[in-house]
Amino acid sequence: MGSAADFPKIDFTSNFQNIINNALSSTPETRQAVDPSTEELLYHVPLSKQADVDKAVSVAKAAFPAWKALSYDERAGYLGRYADAIEANVSGLQELLMKEAGKPVSNAAGELQFAIAHVRETAKLRIEDDLIEDTEERRATVRYLPMGVGVGIIPWNYPVLLGLGKLGPAVLAGNTFIWKPSPFSPYTALKLGEIAAQIFPPGVVQVLSGDESLGPLFTAHPDVAKISFTGSSATGKKVMQACASTLKRLTLELGGNDASIIYDDVDVAQVVQKIGPMAFMHSGQICMDIKRLYVHEKIYDEFLAAFVQVVKSFKVGGGGDPEAFLGPVQNRMQFEKVKDLYSEIGKQKWQVATGGEPVACDGKKGFFLPPTIIDNPPDDSRIVVEEPFGPIMPVLKWSDEDEVVRRANNTNMGLGASVWSNDIEKAERLARRLEAGSTWVNSHFELSPYVPFGGHKWSGVGMDWGIVGLKGWCNTQASWVRKKF
Ligand code: NAD
């Protein structure tokens, strides 16, 4: 592992520029994102246009033949050194992540640690050829070949993990890569690009910042082979449509409305301690946060009361508050969207177990909302049907297994789902009936670089991570050899 002294120093407070062909690249116009804890404007970043995209794609295309010619072990070596260099710069990145994403220190530190480990562990993955048939007459092998220039389009909620979680598999498989961060959180990505420029050969990793017009320039570009997109289902559909005109390969990691089903045999005091963070982590702004909590009617009242106590204990505060567990909503647009959902509380006469509609605080800065639990709203209410992506969620009552499975599956979303019980076999049986890309028993947040992650239905197409994700960065080739004429 490298120490900070082994790597050139990065300035995390100025000089935010695109990284193209391992060089800093400025644009005539710039823009600024906002610190959601203070609403203050952050540093200037590039506003990339078509010419910047063309340059980035062209150098990435030029770098592809030499990069794909390296062995897996050689490419993995670069990734290992990259992980070391990121680790050597972790404190600067953490400060930046807290500012751009509105993350309390525990969340920012956790994201960085997981992301660095992700790069290191991803580097250990290998795809072998599949030998399907080998007779005296012929041999049939399935091979997995890199595609060319890959683009990762990233949302604002986990700017580091989701970016590195695409970069690692893309370049390990032999592709070159362009990282397009969200306009709401471009800062860590640009600095991670600067670090990458010290490690990888020119053209292997690019990072370009811009406004909402930048993504479509990549999905339309004829020399981009693959788009790996993480974001909302609505944008995912636009991305899929745009990729059709050039028949690009595509992975879509989209929204979620994860159900969690609690049986009546659980230890309530223990389970609420686990469910609390898994429902409210990052103020509900995680695709796989628990978003619909179905609690068996026999323990419903006891569970709700204990759950409320846990959620009340979460301190809300900005990046500068070391005791805060929940930060603000990440941006003004999302803040207004979630506030609109809060405004339904009075209109629909939902029962509030804790929290409630935010009271206007004149002059108070930051996109903060009170963590809120809605007690058993109707199944067709917006809080159950929609992905809130904010610190508000419903707790719902159930009594019949078939019925709760039907209700949990009664959504276009299918990202994750969990079942909680002391009877593991019973819980696994129920979990197998849930329509989701990940199911968990007695957990909701198990993730690993070795295990694929993705969604069913409108929650995604394809998967990231693990061998499945790595193969998603490859074209499959059937290779036939006739041994006798
Ligand atoms: P978003 O869809 O608004 O934006 C995501 C990215 O797409 C941004 O970089 C944006 O600039 C870009 N973009 C916007 N329009 C585009 C277009 N027409 N073509 C190409 N790119 C375009 O999503 P968001 O608000 O940043 O993120 C929140 C959403 O992301 C939530 O729905 C959440 O559930 C989802 N999400 C999913 C996962 C997952 O792994 N499944 C992980 C995190 C977040």
Automatic annotation (TrEMBL):
Enzyme class: oxidoreductase
Catalysed reactions, semicolon-separated: an aldehyde + NAD(+) + H2O = a carboxylate + NADH + 2 H(+)
EC number: 1.2.1.3
Keyword annotations from UniProtKB, A to Z: Oxidoreductase
UniProt-listed PROSITE patterns: ALDEHYDE_DEHYDR_GLU
Keyword Oxidoreductase: yes
SUPFAM superfamilies reported for this sequence: ALDH-like
Sequence similarity: Belongs to the aldehyde dehydrogenase family.
The protein, known as: aldehyde dehydrogenase (NAD(+))
